[in-house]
Amino acid sequence: MLENLAQVLDWFGLVVFATTGALTASRNQMDIFGFALLATVTGIGGGTIRDVLLGRLPIFWVQDPTYLMVCVGVACILFFTAHIPQSRIRLLLWLDAIGLSLFAVGGAKLALGLDIHPFIAIIMGVITGTFGGIIRDILGGEKPVVLSQEIYVSAALLAAVVFVVLQSFNVSADWSLALGFIAGFAVRATALVWHWSLPRYQPRSRS
Amino acid sequence: MLENLAQVLDWFGLVVFATTGALTASRNQMDIFGFALLATVTGIGGGTIRDVLLGRLPIFWVQDPTYLMVCVGVACILFFTAHIPQSRIRLLLWLDAIGLSLFAVGGAKLALGLDIHPFIAIIMGVITGTFGGIIRDILGGEKPVVLSQEIYVSAALLAAVVFVVLQSFNVSADWSLALGFIAGFAVRATALVWHWSLPRYQPRSRS
Amino acid sequence: MLENLAQVLDWFGLVVFATTGALTASRNQMDIFGFALLATVTGIGGGTIRDVLLGRLPIFWVQDPTYLMVCVGVACILFFTAHIPQSRIRLLLWLDAIGLSLFAVGGAKLALGLDIHPFIAIIMGVITGTFGGIIRDILGGEKPVVLSQEIYVSAALLAAVVFVVLQSFNVSADWSLALGFIAGFAVRATALVWHWSLPRYQPRSRS
């Protein structure tokens, strides 16, 4: 199951995103099945949308139930431990940053292996990285983090772009994954710490 | 069209869920096309997501327009009769409980027939039972019933588990469907009457 | 790329809907990647859902990146020009009306070419016309225009019905498209100007 770095990162991303889903459930004071539902849709949501768009059906987790079992396991653990972190919203944002970057490079790698235009592979990376969190926030009734003031989508984009560009220069897959992840995470982390944001649209006098 | 119990329950579930969609439309004072839209997405939403994930495309209702026509018919009837029930929100919750349990066993039965891991068949039952209502509540601007205080996802889960377990003991399909439905509905009904809920995540002093 | 009227209208609808997505981003004061995300999901959202339901996978824009590039281009232009229109919400509603009618006839045409029941072809037109805007409004945190007081879904329905009926009388594709578009847009435009609405569900004394 863990033959190479790509798979290690994939499972790590799953655990991290499932954790953010469970933390959202804890902020909504849900029961354990609510935890399981939110952990699962967050963990597998981005990859599911990516695979539907690519026509890779039936979906990966229908063929291998391990993915769902990991999400449910994470939900059970968090149900009893979510009170430990000092600030669940900060933890959620940081784990989300890790999952975002991991899934962005992982999704781009998967798409690139399908003989697809590199631009589309990058978009698939962004979708894999961001849509799990979007579904989590809509179901959990929170303001979607994708609309947050800080740099978000662009971190996923950077991770996917770095990966695809490095691959086009024949850099090894492991190095491309690692550097893409680091680039995306570094940008998102900096944004979280210093509240970095890109120039935003400024309404002028007229509305 | 109605060869056996499974199909009778399936159409009954469709009518019941379409009715809850139309009731949500009435609570939003929509016009008749809003009724038709909400009745349709609620009636076929769960099964549509299930079939996309399983790769059963084109979707069942593309091949047989009867499903959509039933939903539209329900919407038209409700547009003129939604004022009759004493409390539309209570009626909605009770019909939703019936649809939830019916679609949970029906979805599990369909998935189990596809040579799929039983755990995934259970999840497909839960998806079929719950996602129509989730879409209804998001489109209708209501707090998703899936986030309600009372037992909800777990009722769908119980219905699907009972069905799959009984099937694994070679109980007949009809009995498995009936007992699964009764188990899920009984739990959800009890939760509605006595406001039963599972232990919820309790925030400790830190937030 | 632009062999006939159907394709011209399709690309025009894409630009128009992408613009409404970018305008929603401007109302949320997003950064340029937020503009790109909302422009893209609005521009291709309806067609994507239609193609998933029909099983036309991988999705059209995976095979031809031009669609995404157009949406991103529109987002970039709007990021610097969104302040020019006197009222962005009015412009958004009018462009949405154009896109709604264009995509409704275009979606119905595509579905009708697949040897599908005409009723389903009409529904596919409605889905293509309305779901991009629904996703835009949910992601952008705005009240879905589909729930607006004025005639909306029915305009898309009328456009698709006119197209399908004219086609069944062997009217040429171009004329059917043009007349379907005009019918849908005229109704929606009238509704916008005079706040036309269909009779809405009226709650009686009981609730």
Largest interface, counted by CB within 8 Å of the partner chain's CB: A-B, 32 and 31 residues
Q: What share of the residues of chain A does DSSP label as strand, in percent?
A: under 5%
Bin the helical content of chain A.
Answer: over 70%
- So how many helices of chain A? 8
Number of strands of chain A: 0
Structural class of chain A: mainly alpha
Mean pLDDT score of chain A: 87
User: What is the oligomeric state here?
Assistant: homotrimer
- Give a short account of the largest sheet of chain A: none
* Poorly predicted runs of 5 or more residues of chain A: none
Query: What's the shape of chain A?
Result: globular
